[in-house]
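We emphasize that the prediction below concerns an isolated chain of 136 residues; any contacts that depend on oligomerization or on bound cofactors are therefore not represented. The input was used exactly as deposited, without trimming of termini.
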Amino acid sequence: MTMESLIPIASKLQDVLGAIGQTQNLDLPQIVVVGGQSSGKSSVLESLVGRSFLPRGNGIVTRRPLILQLYNTANDENHNGEEFGEFLHLPNHRFTDFRAIRQEIVAETDRLTGMRKGIDATPIHLKIYSPKVLAL
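Result of the prediction step, given as a token string:
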């Protein structure tokens, strides 16, 4: 079994653990983006996806961690080259408009933290499916 074949299994395990509120550190291929305010963290993630989908603005914009899982669908006949995102908190809802992904991140953040720019450690889980991304 190769590392490539383990990524979908590990991603499913992260989904299950996240759905029941457990946070476990899995020893898997991961990229962690950390930095000061307005230091380009969102730009790094968007460059991995090749699309603009994260909230932008002044002050603290990212107020919850984002667990981003990337699925390469280049060899998947079921997706026909379509690019879309799915959130763990909205199962089976496909976001094909990446502006709507941004709006959902803002709405889900505000739902948990309030509109007064509160911060919360509860992650938002987002999966991006695209023939243009690396599987991470």
